[in-house]
């Protein structure tokens, strides 16, 4: 599916939930006129959301509550669409699209980046955010690392997450994946930098800044956000909700509510507690990103 940016695993208990939830599937028949999943969801009162267990995009918190940037948006929109209950179905990031297509859940609610490869398999809402990258570096940024080119110049040891798009960004400037330290998540990245096993951990600005702030690190810091480039062009990382290709009615109804939230400023108010700012808000469309 191309660079996926995130592939964190849900916890063991959460994966158990997947087995239980996967037994109840909703078929989207009537595909010739946009599908009837929305009507079915309204009738049963529950929508199942596929998540990848990643802070801050979609996860189960320490109190067992289902939360994150995408789920909190989904809770509001689906309630307005007449579906009052959302049910999380945690899985691996790489299993989100296959799970959606096999009806293990109804919608992907994981802040998934929209790109042409994925658009060939599913349909997307318009993006609810646009993201830039940032680094975790040692306190004071002694190697002066501010972008991927700097890593090459300084011959720095780079770490990033499993299946992160940052792998592709680094490869675009000549860093071999075999030379990278591939870690399960941003917390492991912070620890690697603190312990000197890596000079830099690359991730999205929100995940990087969140983990440094939450851990109150005394030996590492987050750099300012920057735009990643591939083949001399900015690689736009913008995420949205994914739906099965036949369910255009549900996707379109979701978009109507999403656009209302953008216009009123409600969207930013919902995602701000997860580290998102006005800088991450976007008017890009899925059509633009898919092409």
TrEMBL record:
The keyword Signal applies. InterPro entries: Ectoine_EhuB (IPR014337), Solute-binding_3/MltF_N (IPR001638), TAT_signal (IPR006311). The keyword Signal applies. Residues 46-278 form the Solute-binding protein family 3/N-terminal domain. PROSITE patterns: PROKAR_LIPOPROTEIN (PS51257), TAT (PS51318). Transmembrane segments: none annotated. Keywords: Signal. Pfam families: SBP_bac_3. This is Ectoine/hydroxyectoine ABC transporter substrate-binding protein EhuB. It comes from Streptomyces mordarskii.
């Amino acid at each position: 599916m191309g660079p996926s940016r995130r592939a964190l695993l849900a916890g063991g208990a959460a994966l158990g939930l997947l087995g239980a939830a996967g037994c109840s599937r909703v078929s989207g028949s009537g595909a010739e006129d946009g599908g009837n999943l929305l009507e079915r969801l309204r009738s049963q009162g529950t929508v199942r959301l596929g998540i990848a267990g990643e802070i801050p995009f979609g996860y189960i918190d320490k109190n067992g509550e289902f939360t994150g940037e995408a789920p909190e948006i989904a809770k509001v929109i689906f309630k307005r669409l007449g579906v009052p209950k959302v049910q999380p179905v945690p899985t691996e990031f790489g299993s989100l699209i296959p799970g959606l297509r096999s009806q293990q859940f109804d919608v992907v609610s994981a802040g998934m980046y929209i790109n042409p490869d994925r658009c060939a398999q599913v349909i997307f809402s318009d993006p609810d955010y646009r993201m830039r990258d940032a680094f975790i570096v040692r306190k004071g940024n002694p190697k002066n690392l501010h972008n991927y080119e700097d890593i090459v110049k300084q011959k720095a040891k780079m770490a990033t997450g499993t299946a992160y798009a940052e792998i592709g960004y680094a490869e675009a400037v000549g860093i071999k994946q075999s030379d990278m330290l591939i870690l399960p998540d941003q917390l492991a990245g912070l620890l690697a930098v603190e312990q000197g096993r890596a000079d830099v951990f690359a991730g999205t600005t929100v995940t990087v800044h969140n983990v440094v702030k939450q851990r109150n690190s005394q030996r590492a810091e987050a750099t300012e956000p920057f735009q990643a480039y591939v083949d001399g062009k900015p690689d736009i990382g913008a995420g949205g909700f994914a739906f099965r290709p036949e369910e255009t009615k549900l996707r379109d109804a979701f978009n109507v509510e999403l656009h209302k939230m953008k216009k009123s400023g409600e969207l930013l108010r919902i995602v701000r507690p997860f580290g998102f700012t006005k800088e991450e808000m976007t008017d890009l469309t899925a059509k633009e990103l898919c092409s």
